[in-house]
Amino acid sequence: MAISIAIVDNDALSLAALSQGITVFHPAVRILWTATTGMDAVKRCLSKPTQPEVLLTDLSMEDISGVAVCRAIMTKTSHTAVLGITSYALSHYVSQLAEAGAQSIVPKTNIKRICFAIDTVASGKVYSPDPAVIFQSSTAAHRRLEWNGDSAYHLTEREATILALCADGLTTERIMDALCISEATVKTHVKHILRKLGAKNRAQAVAIWMRSTSL
């Protein structure tokens, strides 16, 4: 079954090369549309008739960044997985893109890796080029971002991220590795989360979160 994708890149030549390369290398992919501005891509991804399964977004664009595109989409829907593509070193964007809710990031010039990543995120999985950075599925990322934006509990973005990782079953040690923070910092954030949610422990905090998101 064909995977529907969309591509946004403000460089028309790069956009054409990506479209052609993906079409040739991965015939099972159907390019639903392409865009040259981030705002246009966000608008199309939030409209059901033009909503792709996977959006490939360049991370350095003139109107808004690919990170902002990702956050705008993932805050509103989980139906489109977001795959960041860049000509720069992946380390420049990987942490902030994961924080914004993307499912992966790959080099723009490597069509083979792009196609592999498309298959991976379209199947509901994630792919991280850096073992220290944890990406979330579109469902989990949307739940985290939507709930953090609408919650009456006023969690900070970092607290919402840690709560989402707890919901995914990560231990304190794995959260430390994923976010590059100390054990004391993790425990401090968890303490604040429990206080804000009125929870006795992590499991209860996650349960409150799940009820709040109706998931």
Automatic annotation (TrEMBL):
Origin species: Bifidobacterium tibiigranuli
Keyword DNA-binding among UniProt keywords: yes
Pfam families per record: GerE, Response_reg
Residues bearing PTM 4-aspartylphosphate: D58
Spans through the membrane: none
One Gene Ontology MF term: DNA binding
Domain HTH luxR-type: residue ranges: 148-213
Domain Response regulatory: 4-123
Taxonomic placement: Bacteria, Bacillati, Actinomycetota, Actinomycetes, Bifidobacteriales
A GO BP annotation: phosphorelay signal transduction system
Keywords linked to the UniProt accession: DNA-binding, Phosphoprotein
SMART domains, per database record: HTH_LUXR, REC
Protein name, entry field: DNA-binding response regulator
PANTHER family: TWO-COMPONENT RESPONSE REGULATOR (PTHR43214:SF43)
Presence of keyword DNA-binding: yes
Gene3D superfamilies from the UniProt entry: 3.40.50.2300
InterPro entries documented for this protein: CheY-like_superfamily, Sig_transdc_resp-reg_C-effctor, Sig_transdc_resp-reg_receiver, Tscrpt_reg_LuxR_C, WalR-like
